[in-house]
Write a structure and sequence with these properties.
Blueprint lengths: L16 H22 L1 E3 H7 L4 H13 L2 E2 L7 E4 L3
Antiparallel strand pairs: 1-3, 2-3
Helix pairs in contact: 1-3
Amino acid sequence: MKTCDGRGTSYMNGNSYEDCKKIAEEINTKLKPFITEHGSMPWKQLSEEVNHDELVYKLVLKYLRRDGFDIGNMDNPQITLSSN
């Protein structure tokens, strides 16, 4: 997987911000069924899924929240199905 660098306006491997958003959407699509089936996913596992790419990691969390998942917090570092 290509790696994106969120610092400034340049990204690693020639990826644009739009490329990083597409990568994050693809990962998001893959993770939603996993989280639904297993009930949760720790942040550490998400970090491994995105190959420790900070920008894609943050975008995936943003998209999961948008799609109704509870992305947790520092006291509860895991992604779960929203209880709403």
